[in-house]
Amino acid sequence: MTLLAGIVAQLLHLLLMLALAPLLLGCIRILEARLMGRRGPPLLQPWRDLLKLLKKRPVLAENASIVSAVTPYVGLAATLVAASLVPGFARDMALSPLADLLLVVGLLAIARCALALAALDIGSGLGGLGAARAMSFAAFAEPAFLLAVMGFAMLAGSTNLDAIGIALQEGAPGPRISLGLALVALLAVALVENGRVPLDQPLDHPAGAPAVTLLQGAMLLEASGRHLALWQMTAALRLTLWLALLAALFLPFGIAPADSGPLAWMLGLAVWLPKLLLLALLLAVFESAIARMRVFRVPEFLGAALLLALLGLVFLFLSTGLA
Amino acid sequence: MTLPPALLLGLLLLAALLAVAAPFLAAAARPRLGRLVPAACILAALGLAGCAASALALGAPEPLLLPFGPPWGPMSLALDGLSAWFLLLLGLSGAACALFAALREAAAPPRQAAGLPLLLAGLALTLLAADGFSLLLGLGLTALALWLPLAAGEAEDAAPRLAAGLALGFSLFSLACLATAIGLLAGTAGDLSFAALRAAPPQGWQAAAVMALVMLGAGAGAGLLPLHGWLPLLQPHLPASTGALLSAVVGKVFLYVAARLLLDIGGPAQPLGWGVPLLAAGAATAVFGALRATQEGDARSILACAGLGHLGLVALAFGLSASLRAADLGALAALAAGAGLLHALGHGLFQTLLTLVVGEIQHSAGSRRLDRLGGLIHAMPAVALAAIAGCAAAAALPPMAGFAGNWLLLQALLAAWRVGELGFQVLVAAAVASVGVAASLGALAMLRFWALAFLGRPRAPRTLGAQEPPRALRFLFLALAGAAGGIGILPGPLLQLATPALSLVSGHAGPAEISVWSVSAAAAASDYRPLGIALLLAVAFLGLVALLRQISPRATVRGPAWDGGFAAPPPHLPFGEPLTQPSALGFAQPLRRMLARRLLAAREDITLPPPGDTGPARLQSHFHDPLLPALLAPLLRARAACADQAERLRDLSIRHLLGMVFFLILALLGVLAWWGGGA
């Protein structure tokens, strides 16, 4: 029975993530437009774009290899698996024994490499530029992420997402200041991983013509039809995954156990959706308030995140040493 | 069992390898023997792997005393868990390299052909040695095998000879350090067998001296920072088979020596700081090697530097294991040691694969420089498939081999704060960050290598001549790629197989939470279930393909590349203007500006044409390794000074010379008497 509930909750979670991802993107667009005094596109616009792209015939360049045709599926598959591991409205879902933070990092790396390969497939200059930058930023983002993970591993004794959530929800989670510093570090990493404003103009941004967005847009120049739809879905899903991850790590209350029945699930959902909306609002406000950063300032941005994560760890070391 | 058959077999194989190498040492050109030598090497290497596997699965055979060696301690061979694990890697990698040599390097000059069997024999002797003398003999043979192929060939330029001389110098330095360390471990008793050394572990200042000497010796041999400079210089000049063995196995064997001397023999009852030198050197090597791999333009150099990065991770794992053992965290120490051993095996195999692939690319497409390749996926799809599997493993992507090793290492690192010393905790945090940097830089280096070589358009006409290799080579590449995946998917059974090695390195029977399907640091800690992840990824991929086929059935069409709206190339450039493609330098540019300016002394010089001139602006960029000149320049000055001093000896009379010798002997005897009396 528990297993069945876990499987049902897992499938529901996966479907919700898939359905929510473009909606959340539409929501962020509306919020950003409102903050700038415009009306913004309708909420369903990302879904309409996806369906339109699916109907179109994909055009591949003459010298494109199988890489262009396969990588969209690889990227979305890896992101999908990662998204199904991050707890949402329920915990103890069927795949939660696999839900390891380091594994999520690895799965997102697969998607990143797949996108870079697709960008390099036909040997276009802009694609190479975007791929080189995206992969280089990861070299600064990953250590900050791992240090934040180390803090959670210290507090929870595990890198399993469910275990971390339970430990933070139930126990006295150590010094709040460490969690706060880890939150800042992870927010910076999330902005970089998703190519949001201080780093890059997202595709859906009002000013986001492909030539301006040197990370995402440059890498997707050659994609069309269902391939482009898959890549857009991957990007939306990755953003939703990050917001859900931040919610699961820093707002771990109100998550329903998977075997507690549909009523508790509804309650969990009623808590989870506002959390995502709150994070989306924060993102929209931040993006509207800040200007884009020069590319070679990004290491300083992420270096600061790294140092903050390290500082949080040192506080943790000191507090465990005193206890 | 009176006779240890596995060891006897190993001995016979060693002898066979030496016998095969011997006629070539006489530099007799015998083209008909060209394939015979690698064929014998394949058999010998497979035999060694079989010995190692049987020793791991069935238990270690009795040591074998040989009737020769120094009079105070006969040479002896043994195969325990630790040496068997590394011998397994040597056997598998050696067989692959020998098969490649049989198919692609049969016409090599005899000196080069002698390198492979000599190298195999030297490494096998090092691993089978059960006493200090045999160990040093094996390492000496290894040094000879690396120097010989390049030492006296008919090379047009001096670079190979210089690289070989540098390698020989580092090897001799390494041998001298290790010999002194073994002498210190043995004391005045003179028994060099490992069993005797283990009975009297070093203490006090001797322990510190042994640690320093082994770090220098093993570091110079394996290429740990700051003694790594010779490896990327030597690697491009060696034949592909020997080079693959060098970057896949030789460094591991030196780390085996370090683990044997520091962790197995000297490991028990040491303070917390015992593992710190290995940990710090490993972390620094991991970051530096991976960063340099992102900047190099020659595929072999890229792989050599990336290999250094992975070697650093193995050293980091061993150092962490030693410190955790000192802090009485036995299960964690075993986990860290398991991470090191698993990563050593996995990296050995995918490094072999990638280096041999580059050898095949050079054979088929005529160049190894990324700026002369491109578009090879159309000409050699099977090679591209095998290479991307190896690259994914090297980039630490789940569920391949590199990720399994990194995951275990990170789990051990993330739990290492339990040691309790604040200084060590901060060091561990720095190590976690450096593993992250090394992994993502390694991913970038591998992506750059694979994408620039196999994707895009051909950058040189010669690339068009590339074609698929013969079936045996394709099978070899795909088998190695399968091994890189298999090690990633089955870390549990492999760690169970490595239990004898784990207990030697970490003094603990191994982490308990290991099954076929999952590995875990402790019962409460997180699980890694690679088989489940692989299945999930496959299901998601196939499900997506099936779904999209339903909801978006229209077939793809081909058209000219959009490329941001660029015009079609002129007809005399059938593959477009090569300069519009991402180049090796261009792809490395963001990191060159962000990191390599400080660490690799990278510089970019822009020459703008004067106003009115329609000539193009030029951007030139270069980097160099600042550590090797920093090491070599004082050495060269010291050599000149020593030579000046030595010149003065010529003017001394026989009376003075005899007096000097006499006083030297007296001084040595005095040291011996003081030391022996103190012991």
From TrEMBL, chain A:
Xref: InterPro entries: ComplexI_Subunit1 (IPR052561), NADH_UbQ_OxRdtase_su1/FPO (IPR001694)
Annotated membrane topology: Multi-pass membrane protein
A Gene Ontology term for the protein's cellular component: plasma membrane
Pfam families: NADHdh (PF00146)
Main subcellular localisation: membrane
Transmembrane feature ranges: 66-89, 101-122, 134-156, 177-195, 235-257, 263-286, 298-318
Protein name as it appears in the record: Formate hydrogenlyase
Localization annotation: Membrane
UniProt keyword annotation of Cytoplasm present: no
Keywords: Membrane, Transmembrane, Transmembrane helix
Signal peptide: none
